[in-house]
């Protein structure tokens, strides 16, 4: 469970030490198949979904690629498994299905 957001940068992240953070629980809505791929990738890496998302976002905010080539191949397999055909080009054109 996440509890709040507070980052203490007493140790540089590139060292072997840890950076203490305080986390909060958040509710976000995400495309169903995309979430399945992310959950499966987190499971493969033996990490939580939150840890995976934090890493992706921190890389993205610095303009860095979050995944190594081998991981990208695994992601492609997961995308095929879960039928995820959306791409980055689709990101500004998504509309939620109306519920009847």
Description:
The chain has 100 residues and is α+β, with helices and mostly antiparallel strands. 40% of the residues lie in helices and 11% in strands. Helix 1 crosses helix 2.
What would the keywords be for this entry?
disordered N terminus; alpha+beta; two-stranded antiparallel sheet; 100 residues
In short:
The chain has three helices and two strands; from the N terminus they run ββααα.
The outline comes out as: globular
Helix content: 40-55%
Give the N-terminus to C-terminus distance in angstroms: 34 Å
Main β-sheet, spatial strand arrangement? 1-2
Task: Please write out the topology.
Elements (H helix, E strand, L loop, with lengths): L2 E6 L11 E5 L7 H13 L4 H13 L7 H14 L18
Antiparallel strand pairs: 1-2
Helix pairs in contact: 1-2, 1-3
């Amino acid at each position: 469970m996440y509890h709040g957001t507070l980052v203490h940068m007493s140790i540089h992240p590139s060292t072997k030490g840890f950076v203490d953070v305080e986390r909060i629980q958040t509710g976000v809505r995400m495309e169903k198949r995309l979430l399945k791929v992310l959950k499966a990738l987190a499971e493969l890496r033996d990490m939580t979904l939150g840890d995976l998302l934090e890493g992706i976002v921190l890389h993205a905010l610095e303009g860095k690629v979050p995944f190594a080539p081998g991981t990208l191949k695994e992601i492609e397999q997961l995308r095929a498994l879960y039928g995820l055909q959306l791409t980055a080009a689709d990101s500004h054109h998504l509309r939620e299905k109306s519920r009847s």
